[in-house]
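Sample entry was shown:

___
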Amino acid sequence: MKTLKIIVPILAIFLTSCEEVIDLDLNEAEPKLVIEASINTNPNDPGLSQAFVKLTTTAPFFDTEIPVVTDAVVTVTHEDGTVFSFAHGENGYYSADLDPEPNILYTLEVIYQNEIYTASNSLVSSSPIEFVEQKDDAGFSGEDIELKAFFSDPAGEDNYYFFEGISEKGNIYDAISDEFFNGNLIFGYYLVEDIEPGDDVRFNLYGINEQNYNFIFTLLQQGDAPAGPFETQPATVRGNIVNQTNPENFPLGYFRISEVFTFSYTVQ
């Protein structure tokens, strides 16, 4: 016992003497513009249709706040030349009253700090969510609630989807391809901690093209979407928007036009 009493203080002194504060000198890159541009049309509930562009910039790694852009000029142009101007509201969100037409090419233009960013896209159809299946013994513990939102994929064509499960207990995002399920019933998967009977979950299913699918899929794989697929990621993922003024100063983000179907479910 006497030996133990001597050794412990000696170890404590040794470990304490080895402590050293190291200051990391991290390189900081110039901020990049981040563009999240979405035009969504909901055929079942036009009130849920929306057209918005969210503009932010990248920030140093340890910054807790994401800088928003409030002084850009944002427009979307119909292929017939009609221009829709997007007005800034708050927190970097620009919006307009725009209900996209099928088979029409729309061009996004963002002018920020004397540089012009553009991208073009067309409306991509989606599929209605038909029903939700609930399982009460899921997860590693066998006690978690799992939800599957099912929809029918059209046969004979390549389709891609962006899936959201939204609730106060947590959000789930996924990029879905019909490569192995063409023409069959497919489901979006929702499992979060602490979900319980009485909780409301809203499912959104957006139609996206292959380029948007690859972008969102890569983004989710990198970040595992802890707070959303469009938060700061550990590596650069380039989208479909080009800096026409200075191509080397490319932006982050994407431009998509989607038909979206929603489905609300109360956990049983």
Observations:
- The domain at 33-125+230-259 is CATH 2.60.40 (Immunoglobulin-like).
- The longest strand covers residues 252-266.
- Residues 1-16 have pLDDT under 50 and may be disordered.
- The helical segments are 2-17, 210-223.
